[in-house]
Amino acid sequence: MTGAAQDKTEEVREMKKLSKLLITGASGRLGSVCRGRLGHLADNLRLSDCKDLGDAREGEEIVYCGLEDKDAVMELVQGCDGIVHLGGQATEAPWETIRAANIDGIVNLYEAARKSSVTPRIVFASSNHAIGFHEQTERLDANSRTRPDGFYGVSKVFGEAVASMYHDKFGIETASIRIGSCFPEPANHRMLSTWLSYDDLIRLIVRVFAVPRLGCPIIYGASANAASWWDNRETAYLGWQPQDTSEVFRAKLDATMQPPSANDPNAVYQGGTFCSDGIHES
Amino acid sequence: MTGAAQDKTEEVREMKKLSKLLITGASGRLGSVCRGRLGHLADNLRLSDCKDLGDAREGEEIVYCGLEDKDAVMELVQGCDGIVHLGGQATEAPWETIRAANIDGIVNLYEAARKSSVTPRIVFASSNHAIGFHEQTERLDANSRTRPDGFYGVSKVFGEAVASMYHDKFGIETASIRIGSCFPEPANHRMLSTWLSYDDLIRLIVRVFAVPRLGCPIIYGASANAASWWDNRETAYLGWQPQDTSEVFRAKLDATMQPPSANDPNAVYQGGTFCSDGIHES
Amino acid sequence: MTGAAQDKTEEVREMKKLSKLLITGASGRLGSVCRGRLGHLADNLRLSDCKDLGDAREGEEIVYCGLEDKDAVMELVQGCDGIVHLGGQATEAPWETIRAANIDGIVNLYEAARKSSVTPRIVFASSNHAIGFHEQTERLDANSRTRPDGFYGVSKVFGEAVASMYHDKFGIETASIRIGSCFPEPANHRMLSTWLSYDDLIRLIVRVFAVPRLGCPIIYGASANAASWWDNRETAYLGWQPQDTSEVFRAKLDATMQPPSANDPNAVYQGGTFCSDGIHES
Amino acid sequence: MTGAAQDKTEEVREMKKLSKLLITGASGRLGSVCRGRLGHLADNLRLSDCKDLGDAREGEEIVYCGLEDKDAVMELVQGCDGIVHLGGQATEAPWETIRAANIDGIVNLYEAARKSSVTPRIVFASSNHAIGFHEQTERLDANSRTRPDGFYGVSKVFGEAVASMYHDKFGIETASIRIGSCFPEPANHRMLSTWLSYDDLIRLIVRVFAVPRLGCPIIYGASANAASWWDNRETAYLGWQPQDTSEVFRAKLDATMQPPSANDPNAVYQGGTFCSDGIHES
Amino acid sequence: MTGAAQDKTEEVREMKKLSKLLITGASGRLGSVCRGRLGHLADNLRLSDCKDLGDAREGEEIVYCGLEDKDAVMELVQGCDGIVHLGGQATEAPWETIRAANIDGIVNLYEAARKSSVTPRIVFASSNHAIGFHEQTERLDANSRTRPDGFYGVSKVFGEAVASMYHDKFGIETASIRIGSCFPEPANHRMLSTWLSYDDLIRLIVRVFAVPRLGCPIIYGASANAASWWDNRETAYLGWQPQDTSEVFRAKLDATMQPPSANDPNAVYQGGTFCSDGIHES
Amino acid sequence: MTGAAQDKTEEVREMKKLSKLLITGASGRLGSVCRGRLGHLADNLRLSDCKDLGDAREGEEIVYCGLEDKDAVMELVQGCDGIVHLGGQATEAPWETIRAANIDGIVNLYEAARKSSVTPRIVFASSNHAIGFHEQTERLDANSRTRPDGFYGVSKVFGEAVASMYHDKFGIETASIRIGSCFPEPANHRMLSTWLSYDDLIRLIVRVFAVPRLGCPIIYGASANAASWWDNRETAYLGWQPQDTSEVFRAKLDATMQPPSANDPNAVYQGGTFCSDGIHES
């Protein structure tokens, strides 16, 4: 069989490329990174947001769309075989805001995926705030129980549950990435543990679309940081190996600010100050 | 110390009684059972529903209220030190129905609990449909991951996440009971494993309000059935020991209907036919 | 739905009965017990052995057949929708004996099951000697690793592996029962932990054929003995609850014989003296 | 083999009886119970304490001895093939008191056991205070980590470590019983979970001396109480099945005293008020 | 002690070398690799196969021998203190072929090892097909249960069971290596996860013979591939750290062939197409 | 928030430095290493031992003090906000020696810490001999049960228990490091698995004092050796990543001495010859 497989090398083929990759929330920080660096994954990028997306470049298609608009989302998703779902509310907010963007928005997205002519593979930008109330001295893996630290975190638990249901019921595959802190560099000592470099994020998304069978994994989105709370061994099958480490920023951080004291929420909880914040009133 | 404690027996005191126990969904099947049998837990029962609740009996107070009405729920919860939350949508339904009753409804309830002058202890009627896609040959406990089998199941995962967050953030204690099939008797062979007798439900609720410290447990709501998928050992501290068993109905069931075939969803999945049902269109 | 189900009671049906149940090794001790007490499970019993089976009673069919005879086994299994496989070598023996009866015999049985016009559900009489080298101070469940204590034990690991493969590949369901010591009463102190009453064995087999979906479970075949090494919680879904206990024989045993000393294989290993025995030379 | 074993019944023998059973701390509450009810286990009881032990009854031998006296303990243990070690300091105390009785005392006891002409089997009265800082909402088993709640608890962790070392190094077998609350009846609501009846204690000790191979188990000493934190499944091989339950005292307790509030150490920690107590100054 | 150990450095000794290392299946692909690269482990290599082995080189001894020939195997093994057992049937085949080579063959080998004048340490070439029916989204370690994907896989479970029994009963140490895909390079996308380089295989065998105490470990034989299903942490004591990775071949593979689709057995099961193949008829 | 944090960079601050770091056992081998290399962690080093400490260098303070002297230890600890506790008996010894240095000594240290005007963070030099009776084929992590191999090992279990109690009760944070073999290089083959380089020890201590919240972790003190028994994943949050490996010494060791035979305690037990040694008589 090995021999036979090797005989086929004369007929050179390209790795499977997506036809149309939708990026929601494309005007945001991570959206812009993905827009700039995921073009090679698909014949076309469809970019969506309700904020300004500038001009469409070659191979791009721009659709303005609010996620809470069911019919618009139906049209948005139609024909996409890949989705990187970064859209929605990206931090704590009053309930009404969270519900529109992250509750209704997610349901609209998956209903559209179910009814689309092609079944997309989905990257869902979940968050460490789905497990934020675990203490920093605890080690988590994909089987750890959720402990959301606010409405935002609750909405991410909701999104992961929707993804699980559409996978079990309709075979739609989703990678839920519990993103730590995806910035150019860590902005405080807690982020030395949660930091995810843009490069590692991009590498992860590339793997999600390259692996023949995705399933419905939960992945902690952090670089190969020295001080770590999260163990991705349950998803080693994806072949994602983060290459960056926050350690290169430690000296600079130490020179810039005091580390939090031992009882500061930024030292106690994985979700940091989200855990000590109250409810955002609408 | 033992001696000292025993010396106090001359001064006879009553076990701690609730002041006002709210039962939501009080006109429903389980609501009626609770209305009839939980009166001894509290000085007053406050009964709520949007359907007819008949006349208030002695010690009862009746409030008509839709759970999606934030202000009405705020008033409903005010002053209650116990809540048995049976209200909301109790089976699969179109998304809009689920969202109003089980998503907004839950947020309204917990926000009201947070703002109330007394902090209530809450029983949340969760459901086996939060874990419905696990196969019947699997054994689950409180740490098993959720696998909801529809919008209804997803809304129960959401409710448990809200309860977890309000416990971690504000100390509100909730018992989430993943109710199996709470009927006078099992209606099919799958229910031989999921059946929860009314008596065992009442015993469980009594324990939830009796235990000095509740925490935020997840409990599988099934009687002591012979064929069982669920293991409540993580919550043995509650002291709930179900007394009934579905086995007494097996012969009658066998005489009444064929057991499902091996590939029937009622034989494959813990959630039964919810798993094979499609999405309820609105 | 409950109501609807109950309305069907006028049309009384019988529980699903097997058409033809094959019992191999039917002349042996357990075979005789099953012959006498499993008749109600099937329209017909097909009894097989290479030793004398006496006269066929009503509803019985007798087939003399060596398990190492591939063609004969093919014919034997044909048309049976249930098999209780007690045949083969039932204790340690030289390799050639074990191989013919328990290695070739098992392969012949499953190949026949695969090729039969109906797919049978199978009870496989595995043995505690598949895990015999675990110490008596260890607690095992269905996930514990195998530690066979001789060729006999190795052949049982083999049989369980064959059952697993035919389940994964062809959907044939098998209950592998790791039988402890199935006798009228325990014959020594070790058997106080391993004893399985005939009644509990029969109850287990009845459950195996009654459960709508069997899967491919591994079950420890022991009664509800006080001193126990084995935990069947992974297979609680079967609804088997042993009713007997070896404790009723303890006083008699104590009066009859000394318990083993602490370093006696009967006190050290779950497999008892099988662990200290050498290889049986052929 | 079964047949052979049964043929031996004409030669009736007695169950193995100890020659000399030492009970330390024999003048204390549990010591008195054991003195009165363990006589049948041995030809002779050797009773030891530094407080008054009254007159020796038939089959009894009385030795006054402080556990911190190495030579006296050597003599005390000499010739005993069983020890129930209840001696030492039985509640929190200043360090010097704990050290003499529970640190030096334990070392003296095991050194004497090692040097004795017969190797005794030992029951070590450990305590729930070895794990007292676990919360009451946690379920523990024999593998849970220790969390002592004071010097007394630390001394029990020490004793269990000594027992483990002498077992691994010299083969001396010890049953460490983490006694909950061994009183005639529970004296407060926490004890509804920790209560161990005298009868269940005696049954456990009898099993420890009856089992052919003991090993070095850790057993939670609590009756079959409804509300339970402790899971003894790892030591099911001992065959100890507690028969009593604290539930029969609940109504009386409820009538006698208020349950603790949710933040009372008696409601939060398994060790109760030991956890909130400070260090006992010497 | 450290000082004393260091004082001995004047007396330079060689690391312990095997006297005679038997390689079975020495004419095969892996056999040839081992023949060429393991010579330094032993004073002599004894090479065995039933196919042509060419001329014996210096330090080599050639023995033609079928594994199913009990007496010949007895002679073959005699005097060897190391065995690398690569012989037998190396892929799926009809039952009769598997049985002769991999069932009888293994029993003959271990019986010969038991009766030999020196007790050999053994490397057993087990296979990923012993666990082939696990899905590729699952992470396995040495404690995962076996799920063989055909007669070949079943024979490997059998071999591991025989190794376990001879270790427990007679102290013969075996390293069972569940070889993934040991080729010069991966031949398809599944092999990006299962690939084992020749260099890493040799490193592993060297460690097996170097470690002072081997025990009876199960090791997954895969290089340090990026996308991995197998976790060797239970056998970190061996000190084997694979150095190669299949990642260097990914681009070439992607250029050569399409990855399998999501429902292709090569994307679903760890055993790949072995899982979808039927039984090989004899 | 990120932006805000970055704006603070104009105000450059130093990383939090200790005021006074106490090193006990400062004249010993590890004490000397720490004395020479931890000066940068604190404004002042207070060095303590009962053996000669030479002259105080700049920034050093020398205090002669026996750990068994309660009042002296009280004074010694006063005012220190960091302690590296290397003092006490560092290998097996008669009980009286162990008790004075490692039992009383530890209690004195923690009582002094509790009563000090500042609460110190503590590094406790525990030992692999706390778990020495585990076999070398077992993998341990922070949750594995203790199996001490002598009085020395028992005293380390005691010290860890004291640390746990003072953390739970008074919030004093301790890092218990189960040091393997901390020498310039491994002195025998067992130490290839247990070796901890001086550099890695220093890196670990630096991390213990740098991490904002320490908790009360148990860390295995071994370098990144190829052959390893210990898994520090539970304490990955500390950010300690050992950089050295014993592998660089293997060839030299192999040339110097024979590896132990398979039944040598140095090959069987993690604690090596401590396990086969008897009790040290006083």
From TrEMBL, chains A, B, C, D, E, F:
* Keyword vocabulary terms for this entry: Carbohydrate metabolism, NADP
**InterPro entries registered for this protein in UniProt:** Epimerase_deHydtase (IPR001509), NAD(P)-bd_dom_sf (IPR036291)
Q: Which organism is it from?
A: Sedimentitalea xiamensis
Protein name as catalogued: NAD(P)-dependent oxidoreductase
Q: Which Pfam families match?
A: Epimerase
Superkingdom of origin organism: Bacteria
The UniProt record lists the keyword Protein biosynthesis: no
Q: Which residues form the NAD-dependent epimerase/dehydratase domain?
A: 22-183
Q: Would you indicate the residue range of the signal peptide?
A: none
